[in-house]
Amino acid sequence: MTPESLVGETQDLFSLPDVVRRINQLIDAPDTRSADLAEVIRFDPGLSARLLRVVNSALYARPQPIETVTQAINLIGHQALRDLVMATCMVDLFKGLPPDWIDMDRFWFQAVACGIGAGDIASRAGLSQSERLFMTGLLHSLGRLIFVTQCPNDYLDVLRLIEQESLESSVAEQRVFGFDYTRLSAELLKAWGFPESIWMAIAQVSMPAQATQYRVESEILHVAILIADRLMLNHVGGTVPTVDRLAEESQALAEYLSLDPEALDELPDAIALQVMDVFGILMPEASLIF
To answer: For the structural domain made of 3-282, what CATH number should be given?
Structure first.
């Protein structure tokens, strides 16, 4: 079994929805107007409603409400629109997985927190790719969903190792499968045609200092995962072994990006409201209580 073969088995089960493909085509075209994008989105009432809820949420903190899809697109820009469409469609694409396989509420809470955390770090560092890093963080753990849908019995062995030996999930996955969820996530996004800067950053996140390309993105994603785990522990509960490394890894990243270390120390609290707001929009029926 390899990441490539496992992703190949999911092509019919998990493929990008038509609305995502159409939005991507329009955004990649140089002469696309906001009105063109709005016309596509209006055919999906659920997506339209979520777009308006997001732009009126704490993520953007607008003094005046945004009332139309075109206004929303003009406010957030085409790249952020792509992120939102992808986030919404990913939630729908993987909806309905058996709860005894994976808790999807916790999964998406962590993913949203990681995406917002990665984007925030990039913004604080003055980097131009904050929107791309939001998407990288949001989608970095999709491989875990492939594991549990395609190899549910083997993944039970992963869960046993995590519980019995207090291993991190990626270590347990390496032991059972020979590769972890980040390698699988990267392969899935590569197969879907995502930019190299996204899937390579994910593929290298377990050893970011050794990244041959996109090291900055991998380093930021690495710490964003720890920040998301801290938020998970603070607001959802449970045991997250990786959070003990957050202070040390944040210090190293602050030095690498020439940031004030306190800027990263405060980040879990700084983004908490945004995370809960966006999570509530993407997962309106979630059972998590804050």
So the answer is: 1.10.3210.10
